[in-house]
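Key result, reporting period 2: structure in, sequence out.
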């Protein structure tokens, strides 16, 4: 269920939130990347992170972003969400446990403006995620996925 937070948990959480605030709103991109790395996000080389990108405060260390990735403005990368598999009428949503899982964005992927990446998702090498898409499942290498939920609409050959 719920574990009581220690003083150390609170201190780490505050540090994480402060760094996250700077990372979301500072300029230029390499400074945003720097602050996200300080938070524990594993980020490769030549990565662009746009303004107001939200990388989950609950588990930034569960996010891996490989080289040459573009994450454009307003995206959200979430590493936890409520598990509703046992939710039923009369239950309180707040009593449902969290599903916690990492996100892996592979080399050369492009995440369009305002896309949301859910826990446990891997975005394939060179994949393109359309603006405003909600990615709930893994996306293969070299394809375009769009929509809510995101579906592959095009695959690129050799």
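The corresponding designed sequence is given below.
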């Amino acid at each position: 269920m719920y574990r009581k937070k220690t003083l150390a948990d609170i201190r780490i959480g505050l540090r994480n939130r402060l760094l996250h605030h700077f990372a979301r709103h500072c300029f230029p991109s390499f400074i945003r990347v720097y602050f996200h790395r300080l938070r524990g996000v594993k980020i490769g080389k030549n990565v662009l992170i746009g303004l107001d990108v939200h990388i989950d405060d609950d588990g930034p260390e569960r996010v891996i972003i490989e080289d040459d990735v573009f994450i454009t403005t307003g995206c959200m990368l979430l590493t936890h969400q409520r598990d509703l598999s046992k939710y039923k009428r009369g239950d309180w949503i707040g009593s449902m446990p969290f599903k916690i899982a990492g996100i892996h964005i592979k080399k050369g992927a492009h995440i369009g403006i305002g896309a949301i990446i859910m826990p446990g998702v891997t975005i394939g090498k060179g994949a393109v995620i359309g603006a405003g898409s909600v990615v709930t499942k893994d996306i293969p290498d070299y394809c375009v996925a769009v929509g809510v939920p995101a579906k592959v609409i095009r695959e690129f050959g050799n």
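The longest helix spans residues 7-25. The chain has a mean pLDDT of 95. This case is discussed further under Risks and Mitigation.
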